[in-house]
Amino acid sequence: MKYPFTLRLTLMLALVFVLASCRQAPSGIQSGDLLFVGLPLDYTVEGDSASMSDAIVAATGDEDQVNYIHVAILEQSADTTFVIDATLKHGVARYPLDTMKEEFRLKSGDYPLFVVKRLKDNKQRDQWVSNAKQYVGRGYDLSFLPDNDEQYCSELVWNAYLDEHGTKIFPSAPMNFRSADGSFPPYWIWLFSRIGMPIPQDVEGTNPNAMARDERLIAVSGQ
Predict the structure, then answer these.
(1) Is residue 2 part of a domain?
(2) Residue 9 — φ and ψ, nearest 5°?
(3) How many domains does the chain have?
(4) How far apart are CA 207 and CA 156, in angstroms?
(5) CATH code, domain carrying 81
(6) What is the average pLDDT across 102-120?
(7) What is d(CA 118, CA 28) in angstroms, rounded to the nearest whole number?
(8) What is the pLDDT of residue 1?
(9) What is the tens place of the pLDDT at every residue in 35-75?
(10) Residue 124 domain flag
(11) How far apart are CA 28 and CA 190, in angstroms?
(12) In terms of residue numbers, what domain contains 198?
């Protein structure tokens, strides 16, 4: 089934491409690092009242000025940096980072905010990448449910990043699809009516905004 707005994630906009850095953070991308895509909290798509990016910002924003609406897993080879992620366009796929950047580019030529973060204890980074690759080829989880074969972006990370005991590293929490005023953004109403299911408000899940702010992650400078 094809859905309208399937390219909306490629229009997640901001004005500057940035790789975040912090004092004493390790530099250079490593396999297993996480790439977060951010938008300003006041971001809207002009003339579009039903976009996924707007809906995510409305439902998962907090007091910070950046709202993270996508996360990808990075894999560093000898001469190429790849991403493994789940998007509406590709489903779960592995492809070059440069391709991802271009797909997120605004028509004006600007980029969204890209922030690289790393788990403080990342000795299992190669295993996490290997785990993620096992999901390549699966579809994008439009229902945002934890008990099917499809994956949404932070769900892929949640399932791939396991500790030495096989326990998920990142926590889950009841998902919120409501705006600050308690209403559901138009996109969620449209999407879930289209696929014939109720909005999964309070179903256990993850989101990139909460994941990006996990205290076990540190910012990484350089590319």
Answers:
(1) no
(2) -65, -20
(3) 1
(4) 11
(5) 3.90.1720.10
(6) 83
(7) 11
(8) 41
(9) 998 876 654 544 444 455 555 555 555 545 678 889 999 99
(10) yes
(11) 41
(12) 8-219
Task: Compute the C-alpha angle 81/87/90, nearest 5°.
Answer: 80
Identify the residue whose tokens are 């975040």.
20
Cα–Cα nearest to 51, from 143, 199, 186, 197: 186
Q: Is the Cα dihedral 17, 187, 107, 100 positive or negative?
A: positive
Spatial contact of 70 and 202, defined as CB atoms under 8 Å apart = no
Cβ neighbours of residue 6 closer than 8 Å, sequence gap 6 or more: 88, 89
Residue in the structure block whose two tokens are 């996990």: 214
Token digits of residue 88: 């509406």
Other CB atoms closer than 10 Å to residue 166's CB: what's the count? Answer: 6
CB 100 within 8 A of CB 83: yes
In a domain, 3, yes or no: no
Q: Give the tokens for residue 93.
A: 């796929």
Give Rg (Cα) of the chain.
16
Q: What are phi and psi of 34, to 5 degrees?
A: -115, 135
Tens of pLDDT, residues 186-218? 888 998 999 999 999 999 999 999 999 999 999
| Rounded-to-integer distance, Cα 191 and Cα 25, Å | 40
pLDDT band with cut points at 50, 70 and 90 for residue 103: confident
Quick: pLDDT tens for 160-169. Answer: 999 999 999 9
Residue 51: inside a domain, yes or no? yes
Model pLDDT, residue 117: 97
How far apart CA 192 and CA 176 sit, in angstroms, is 14
- Residue 71's Cα: distance from chain center in Å? 3
Question: How is residue 25 written in tokens?
Answer: 């953070």
What percent of the chain is modeled with pLDDT above 70?
A: 74
